[in-house]
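Handout, page 2. Input:
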Amino acid sequence: MIIKEYIKNNSFDPLFINGDSLTILKEINDDSIDCIITSPPYYMKREYLKDGIGLEKTYNEYIDNLLLIIKEIKRILKPTGSFWFNIGDSYKDKQLLNIPHRISIRMQDEQNWILRNTIIWDKVKGTMTSSKDNLGNQYEFIFHFVKDKTNYFYDSNQVRNTPRKVKIENGAVVSATGVTGIKYKRKIELSTELSEFEKQEAQKALKNVLSRMENGEISDFRMVIRGSSQRITNGDSIKLSGRAKELRDKGYYFLFYNSKGSMISDLWQIIPEDSRGRKLHYAPFPIDLVKNPILLTCPEKGIVLDPFSGTGTTSYVAKSLKRKSVGIDIKKEYIDYSTQRCK
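Output:
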């Protein structure tokens, strides 16, 4: 009931709840949360003030317990919602257990989650290791799951790289990467693969694209012409590639670059949070790791939830981005710390 009332009010101050995640999640209404971001305790890594998930006798028990929680996460997530799941791996008996992918595959096979991306979190500086027979670890996985593959909220413009600008040089329009269209005009003229009609149509299309670039609609483009040495997207099979079909039917196709900048990749280089001197919680879940998921998949004034909130990083970022948030943790010490932090 407290969560239902919180969702209705207009405050961006986080709601923190002390208790068992599975129990509390079962009290939340279906289809009520926009975005869920979490990093649960990893298997056999640390005792976060003792008790809680992550201390099971076997990794299968650990995964089973997480899947019970993830089942409730799916129920409370809106059809337009996203679930971002950061999980690290563990060794046992000198064998890497492959826990992140075991969980991900079971989520897809048993709970019908749709995996949209696997992000590699490059922590830039690896943790110190005393091992003499395996490499030090410098990355973790972040999985982006949705319930509905065609209907989830996704605002890619919020996280695009800053685009380079179109220029005018000697009266010619030059793209962000130096493309003027001159080389393409010449390729069309010299082509032995295109008919005269196809050459005329290709020149008209190129002129239109250059006009669009001059007007600021696009900042960059590439043109692929039949018979040229340029690579065809997804190969030359018309069954696999619509571009190959265009090339066969028209003799050319264009690749356009978004004028708002290129999309960020699935490799995120983010230094872990410095937890030196911290008395309570030592997980390196950093602020920058939470920003992209919220900006991408939680609408303005939407609500974010973290069922393993720890020191409240998810809620801290959500509040700064004007989103409501709910943080759940089994340890009262963490809840008290998070509450003070978010003030």
